[in-house]
Structures are given as structure tokens and as C-alpha cells.
């Protein structure tokens, strides 16, 4: 069996000749079915751009991104900023993707409710987003992505806007959710701690144009819990990855400083 996602010699440019930006690449990457891969890299190195290519929202300027898809809509995305509709109630937000996919309303409601229950929001289905905390809104966004039961879950800094405690709780919830159905996940974060806790593998990207400079397997067994942080191996891996990443973050800072 081939990989679930294969990126070959992918590059992406933005803009036209005079203000052309080389955002990403060349980048080669294979992600296996069921693998949880975290991507870290300096700001502006092309992480979101790559995720949008996997989602089919934009095309590479060169190279290819292939997905071994079994369904018409293989991916679902969770963004940083709770991209849920303020004018829709929680249940309708979670059902949104199912409505688009033509799932009958009754079945859609059942599925949406079951994912709301998994995320601890069973009693909030009639609430409007404005009445929810940040953590609850992000849970709604995650429930909406999971409800379509995507082959590949794409998460772009999904916990970045949350406070530290809420972030830890949602990390543990995501670990448990992943354990239940072991979907392929591509997860962007600025936190090495989060990347090591969640991932089977952590990819470190260079400053723009982003290339993959390291791919580290995370050795901790699953099911995994937050207390894996308290081990010497966790700290050692974090230190090792930070040495790689720091160099790229400094390169990025020098780059923006020189403009
Ligand atoms: N639609 C666009 N038009 C022009 N330039 C773009 C566009 N989208 C992204 N870029 C540029 O491409 C580069 C990569 O952007 P991208 O958003 O992928 O970075 P990122 O790694 O996700 O950064 P961050 O960590 O800050 O989210 C940046 O220089 C950005 O300004
Ligand atoms: Mg981004």
C-alpha cells in the first residue's frame, strides 16, 4: 500500500514577477495512513500554504500533492480562529459539512449530536457561538470537522488561541479521539511540546521558502497521555528539536529585520 499523502517536489510562489514570493519548497513528503504528523517551523515558512494544498484549496506552482482518497471529500480542516458561523446554532454548525455532503437531516442530526457528545457539548446544541467560551467554540469547530468523518484531518494551529489549561485539556481530548479511530492527521503548531505530545512524527521546516529539514519519530507508545511530558526522553527530544528550530527562527528574524 502506498502512502496516504505524497508531496513530490512541491513549490509554491505567490504574486507576480516584481513582487513574487517563494513561499514553499521544494518539498518532498510521504505520510502513511493513520499517521499523526505535526509540522513546526518559523512564521511565514509556508505551513498553512502546504495544508491548503493538501485540502485542495490551492494548487502547487510546481510538483504534485497526491492523496490516496477513498471518498469524494477526503479532508476536513480546523483553523486557528474558530471558523464557525456566528448566526448558526451549535448543532447547525456541526451539521454544516454533512448538509453540504447531502446527508439526510435526521442522520445528520444524529451524527452531529454524537460528535458534540464526544466533545462534551451535548447540552449546548441550541446555543449560539457568541455565548460560548473560546475552548467551547474550538470544540465545535473540531466536532464539525470530525462529523464528516474525513479520511484526513487537517489542523492549522487549532489550539493557539486558547489559554494554557484549555489547551492541555483539548490536547488530551484529541489524543483520545485519535486513539478511537486513528485517522490520518496533519497538525500545525508553534509549540514543540504540543507536537511531541500529539505526533507520531514531527517535521521541522526551514524559514521561507519552507523545506523539511528534519523528520523525527516520536518514540512514546500509545495510548498516550499528558504525563508523558514528565519523562527525560520528552525533554531530550524537545531540546533536540529546539536546536534545529531555533536556527530557522533566527534566520526568519534576520530576514524580516533586514527589510
Ligand atoms: N494568498 C497569498 N498571497 C500572497 N502571499 C501569500 C498568500 N498566502 C501566503 N502568502 C505568503 O506565503 C508565505 C507563507 O505563508 P503561510 O501562511 O503558508 O505561512 P505559515 O508558515 O503558515 O506562517 P504562520 O506560522 O505565521 O501561520 C508568507 O510569506 C505569506 O506572506
Ligand atoms: Mg499559518
From TrEMBL:
| UniProt name for this protein | Unannotated protein
Signal sequence range: none
ABC transporter domain span: 5-232
Q: InterPro entries, per this entry? A: AAA+_ATPase (IPR003593), ABC_transporter-like_ATP-bd (IPR003439), ABC_transporter-like_CS (IPR017871), ABC_transporter_ATP-bind (IPR050166), P-loop_NTPase (IPR027417)
The alphabetical list of record keywords is: ATP-binding, Nucleotide-binding, Transport
> Which GO terms fall under molecular function for this chain's record?
ATP binding; ATP hydrolysis activity
| SUPFAM superfamilies given in the database record | P-loop containing nucleoside triphosphate hydrolases
Q: Which organism is it from?
A: freshwater metagenome
Output the CDD domains linked to this UniProt entry.
ABC_NrtD_SsuB_transporters
